[in-house]
């Protein structure tokens, strides 16, 4: 059965829900999130190579401290982004995130020690937690329930296509002009444009959530008056679907930390050039990003659970292929598979949160989910670095592949189908 046509929901100020009713603002927020993704993309190639060639870091655990710093601060900020956006509105949180982003490109381009790089990633984690979380919440506010998967697919597609495009561009700039400062000038432009659009053109969307809440059922498991602590407990542990989504999100970003921090190193040790590494680093988020345009829409039609399970298992196969591969072609295929698996999972997990959480506490549930999800960056950086230092890069890759497969099985067993039209 096709997802139902979005029904406009009136509010006191004439607010309506749905993509068609809010298309200009929705498209604007897609563009803003592309700039958010570009801020992340400027690091995907350059920082693993800078750690070795410029700062002389040889231990993998030390090299991955920037991912640990980014993941830990982004995870914590995600949690507070949901609460702050409920309390003060979405737009002020978005603007604050862009203000924090302004010094990051200069710190990456001219920081004299590795400590400056780590500090820049602390700021990047805070900025990404505020900006990316808020664009997600705002799009959920605007879209309403019927097209939630499509909305999340477009949001995440914009962000990760920008990650891929910026990774490819910075790989080229690094090959031609060196690792610093040229690749980070793109990030400076992104931050300035993102701040300008968010301040001058983006409009507040909190009233859209209130309009949906006014028409939302409040009985059963929704409980519109839950405290933040109760929401965190429910999203993390007691609600089977929300908790299954949270652990899958965490493992997904755990393996993304591996792709970000370890894959460029292993490709370099096998003799690939910076430009070739740039192509591989761009393939994964490019397939991930473009794929979400279809997978978010697909989850609105076939449901969420099976796409998530299949996506996690496909990711596990792709990561194992990196460990087994010995050529550019094999690694390129593995990056395509990893991107496809992630595309199946990423917007669909967010749609699960939107399906289950009541509009009155949905922003906080998104924050808790993203706390777990982006905590995977920190856990992945620590786990991969320690295993690589104690044993080998291949051992780290095989460990993450196994964890990803187990996570998919947890979803298969624990999660219920959450799409309103597909529940049994």
UniProtKB/TrEMBL annotation:
Domain Major facilitator superfamily (MFS) profile positions: 17-419
GO cellular component: plasma membrane
CDD domains the UniProt entry points to: MFS_MdtG_SLC18_like
UniProt keywords, alphabetically: Cell membrane, Membrane, Transmembrane, Transmembrane helix, Transport
Membrane topology: Multi-pass membrane protein
MF (Gene Ontology): transmembrane transporter activity
Subcellular location: Cell membrane
PROSITE patterns recorded: MFS, SUGAR_TRANSPORT_1
InterPro entries to which the protein is assigned, alphabetical: MFS, MFS_dom, MFS_sugar_transport-like, MFS_trans_sf, MFS_Transporters, Sugar_transporter_CS
Name the UniProt record assigns to this protein: MFS family permease
